[in-house]
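Suppose a colleague, Dr. K., hands you the sequence of a protein chain of 162 amino acids and asks what its three-dimensional shape might be. Before reaching for any lab equipment, you can write down a predicted structure in token form. Begin with the sequence itself:
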Amino acid sequence: MNKKAIYAGTFDPITLGHLDVVERAARIFPKLIVAVAAVTGKDELFSQEERVELVKSAVVNMPDVTVEPFDGLLVNYARAQGARVIIRGLRAFSDFEYEFQMALTNRRLAPDLETLFLMPKQDYSFLNSTNIKQVALLGGDVAEFVPETVAEALSAKLNRKS
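The predicted structure, expressed as tokens, is then:
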């Protein structure tokens, strides 16, 4: 049995919902790689390097979790890392169609990899990075939605842009 899984995303920024999924996956798999995507097609606030550092700061107390940047196809990255499982988070039913299509595409590209869907706590089911960035941009307090280091980084980044 392979004991390594990959949880990939943009994490721009990482939220408490993402961290809840990380914690759940880390209880299932002895080794978890949080893979921070380079090119996403989204309008990122933080560079890949900044996002990697923010995720590292958020998982610093999780010894079996590593954080790495990646670029290219997730299935290729997972294979190169020796992982057999891709973790995906589902917040709400609205996520399901997109995630289902991605899982089927990945299965077609790499039938040897499995996708495991995990749901965060109900308290975090509404969180997404886009909304958090918008709240922060408009001066709202995001401390209850993201780790402290992320709240500080958002404040610093957005204050510099003003």
